[in-house]
Amino acid sequence: MNYAQQKITIAEAEKILFDLFNIKGTASSLPGYVDFNFRIKIENEEGYILKISRVEENKKYLEYQQHLLQFIEHSGEKLIAPKAVTDKNNNLISEIKDRFGKTRCVRLLTWVSGKVWSAVNPQSADLRCSIGTQCGILTKALQGFKHPEAHYNFEWDIAQSLWTKKHLHLFEAPEKEILMLFQHKFEAYQPSYTSLRKSIIHNDPNDNNIIVTNNLLQPKAKAAIDYGDAMHTQTINDLAILCAYGAMGHHDPLEAALAFIKGYHNSFPLLEKELAHLFNAIAMRLVIIVTRAAMSKIEEPDNDYLWISEKPAWEVLYKWHEISDDFAHFSFRIACGFSAHPNETEFEKWSQNNTFKLSELFPSINRNEIHHLDLSVSSTFPGHQQEFNNLDLFQFKIDQLQKEVPNKILAGGYLEPRNLYTSTEYDTVGNYGKQSRTIHLGIDFWLAENTPVHALFDGEVVVAVDDAGNKEYGGLVILKHRQQNFSFYTLYGHNTVKSVLKHQIGDTIRKGEQISILANYPENGNWAPHLHFQVMLSLLDYKTDFPGVGYFNETDVWKSLCPNPNLLFKIDGFKENLIPVSNEILAFRKQHLGKGMSLQYKTPLHIVKGTNQYLIDAVGRKYLDTVNNVAHVGHENFKVVKAGQNQMALLNTNTRYLHENINTLAKEILKTLPKELSFLHFVNSGSEANELAIRMVKTCTNSDEIMASEHGYHGNTNGTIGISSYKFDGKGGKGKPKNTHIFPIPDAFRGKYRGEHTADKYAREVQFLIDEIHQQNKKVGGFIIEPIISCGGQIELPKEFLQQAYKKVKKAGGFCISDEVQTGIGRMGKTFWGFQLHDVVPDIVTIGKPLGNGHPIAAVACTKEVSEKFANGMEFFNTFGGNPVSCAIATEVLQEVKREKLQENALNVGKFLKSELKQLSKKFPIIGDVRGQGLFLGLELVDEHLKPLAEQTDYIINRMKKHGILMSSDGPDHNVIKIKPPLTFTKENAKEILFYLKKVFNEDFIKNKH
Length: 1010
Known about the structure:
single chain; seven-stranded mixed β-sheet
């Protein structure tokens, strides 16, 4: 009978349920590979799953499944599993005649509540580990179960998977070659595979057969269901099947599998010899999936459930094919708590009994002590990346350091986290965003070109090549060294090609013989001259190369596979790397730094370096920075840094002396401002700038009555806190001072007045304050607002509001301040200053630290009238406001904005990003509003009633950090995600943000919480 004839309808299922079990319930169809399955819902009960067999199913096998469930129920393990329910006649299995007169077997099982693993998003490492743990407990529970029906021929049994060879004709290259490769490997390992321990296993713990708890933040595995494939086979197969399905949908399937293995091993300890077969067993399950899918498309074209896993299985197979079997094996061992390489201990014992001198490696140097050279991500020695890439300059620094320690060799680098590698060969996309190889696996000896390198011990040449390319090895030699019980390898990189190619593969190099000669750039891969010396216990699958740098998340594998070369020399002076210090830093901070200083993210980041639009942590991971607008032209912009360094080496003093730098900076700023704003004062921060602006207003008007926006923020001094509703109306605040007058935030989305044409209404609120001041027989002093209100939630002011407000304030004799600390210097894209968006000219403009790219410099621009009234005889002096160093830096920032067309970049990238975010809001209504200009954007998260969603906002920010993107929240309700990156932010960066936002917005906590 074909599939359509065997299919059971929902109405038929409900009738069968009542006739056999006397239960009335509502049925809905569930997927199934063999049985026809139905979810049975009953009011106020968990319900059941009704399983109706295909025609002429083996009843004894079904009885075996029922007995297995009963065994689990009484196993004593803390396991949840479906329970078998007897029919009206107390039978575990019932029989019916279908509409064609064919016999069918019927079973009823209790329903296990929760959701299937496949429906959970994200598939976190903690979830995967818990699933592994659950499956391990199940394997343990089944150890004592025996049944004759558990032994049978089954095409889904990995042990029997070589049947797939007969169906290779269904595939073409390259798929066919991939299948053949894994089939060949599995066949070759049969003698040892067949000897592995066996037991009855579930045999199908796929993503639709594992039930997970409903917890949105920390779901855990609850139960395995559908024991229809249970059989007696190699025990390791259950874990292999779990990993095969669990690896689907991940950029890095190997990394995804490790959590399952760790959890499984914790509850059911695996044997080392089993782990040696796990990689191929996983592959063979994938081979079965794609082969069976290809067959099913011919046999049952109407049953698309039969090839539901085909596409993701092929995606994993393509990636699995690229993974070294040995590296996977070593990774599995680490996950189970074994040393990654089985010979690591043997090598360590051997090295304890054998010591070598550096003078044997470099006889012409004849030095045996080292001076540690730190090139880690947090080291200042390499200088700026551009300086490091200037190899002549770097070599000069090496030479100068060498003169200080003439009797030592400059060396270091084992397990050192570095971000010096600029080639894209070092980068990839992992399961949590972009990642780079940063962990150095050898020791670098910084010696002059033409230094000969000699053999420490006998070895066979296995690699001798010109590894040409930027930041590659250049001339590379790898030697194999055979010991009594094991072999290891030594690698020598960055040599002259001629000295390397004189060797032939298979040549023996005796102890003391010359191996190579150190080269200079570009021959050595574009490095300053040095030897990269590395020890390996395996070559993996490499034939002409071997990694000298690894990914941080794989460090435990690499440090076992590539032991510390200093085990051979036992020299003092090397720095130990990868010692976590974040907790120590945090503990000191909590004990000695102000309690009001907050940290970002649930798990704070230890950031040690910045580069352009990225921040870099202590292990070299790069985070795309969408938060730190102060780094206006990019973190550690080279030209800005050099401008500061050069002037700092020459002079830094106050403004009581003549100096051209302050005039040069003033000219650059004045070029960008309306002619009315023709006078400048320099200070050190945005807070100081706003403090000075308020002082100017008071001096000019003889009034300290200041009007400011609700939720506005203007600095951290006493005076600026007093005009910052964001602070005095927030936690720890004591309300507004009597001379501060607050109007409602002009928010057309969730403010007092909403929708279009709200400018008049919000402007009237300003007039109310003016009237209130006058009613108290006081004069209006000033009006301060940001052109886009930042801490208030990136609030764009209604069109024409600022024009009306300025007009009313000036009519009342007040002065208008535009706080451009966050909005100015090209960030708006359309205009250089935020106030220019509104076609107004303020009396005073305040500029903050973005002017110095984070260096403490700020400015106040004002009209001639303000400047003259402020000069009332009291000197204005700010010790280091406008100092030559700060002015040199700020001038370079302004020139960089123009030179690199960063205002234009802010316009184009910001326009693209804002448009795409608006499109995203159509798919995810939780994004209630997208607003802002240029690279100063905000997206506000609300429910259908416009209620703020702070929890979801915090979740998204922390999840984006997990993917290597730094975001932050703003607004009085902490429900606005702000985007204000360095202006060097690119369209590709914007696309990356959009990709991961879409990913995170699809996660369960966001979709289901509200």
